[in-house]
Specification:
The protein is α/β, with parallel strands linked by helices and 211 residues long. Helices cover 36% and strands 18% of the residues. α1 links the parallel β1 and β2. α1 packs parallel to α6 and α3 packs across α4. The radius of gyration is 18 Å and the shape is globular. The C terminus is likely disordered.
Length: 211
């Protein structure tokens, strides 16, 4: 087992989404046999946007060779895709910004959703190239987005489910702490609900293959 965690909040390890993701990581570690698995953290806030060289490569019939990648976005993309391929489990720690993913997470997505690498285009549409593996998304939100007459729109979870599915990752589970902008009591209750869901989830139920 190996765990890749994408950290998307500008508050980093002080954020609510990171706190929730750590509960997920802890549960995954508990299910590992023998030696504790490595956990690789990537801070998506440090990622640059894709650049002109990246855009040109996507519009070309083939990519440059490994020696021609240079030090720009194509090299960054190759490194991020390699880290994703090597992980048996993916954990995404993200806030909800303006009803959807923050720009940091979108930057990571733009690097790893790459034609000829993580997906291919066929006569039937886009097909993922990655072997499926468990993906756990830890979401924090200032408001409530699940249920209720006053719930805010949620463009985050359907978007992530679709874009990850495009590259072959269909086994996606969401956990969330909602209403973080409310009272301390409401936050404590939201944390308790999320942690109960994590505690009750069968993390070890799906066999982990070698990717």
């Amino acid at each position: 087992m190996s765990i890749l965690r994408i950290i998307c909040s500008p508050r980093g390890s002080a954020s609510e989404s990171y706190r929730l993701s750590q509960r997920i990581v802890d549960r995954l570690v508990e299910t590992a046999d023998g030696t504790p698995p490595p956990v690789v953290d990537i801070d998506a806030n440090l990622l640059p946007h894709v650049d002109p060289g990246y855009a040109m490569a996507l519009g070309s019939p083939q990519d440059p060779s490994e020696d021609e990648l240079g030090r720009g976005a194509l090299r960054q993309s190759a490194d991020l895709i390699r880290a994703l391929r090597e992980a048996t489990h993916l954990v995404i720690a993200t806030p909800m910004h303006n009803f959807t993913v923050p720009s940091s997470l979108k930057a990571w997505i733009d690097h790893i959703v790459r034609v000829r690498h993580t997906f291919r285009i066929t006569s039937e549409g886009k097909v993922g190239n990655l072997a499926d593996r468990p993906v756990y998304v830890a979401i924090s939100s200032g408001g409530d987005f699940s249920g209720g007459a006053h719930a805010q729109p949620d463009f985050l979870t359907p978007y992530l489910r679709h874009v990850l599915g495009t590259i072959g990752l269909a086994d996606v589970t969401f956990f969330s702490v909602q209403g973080t902008a409310r009272s301390a009591e409401a936050l404590a209750a939201a944390r308790a609900r999320a942690e109960a869901e994590i505690a009750g989830h069968a993390f070890g139920a799906r066999a982990v293959e070698a990717w």
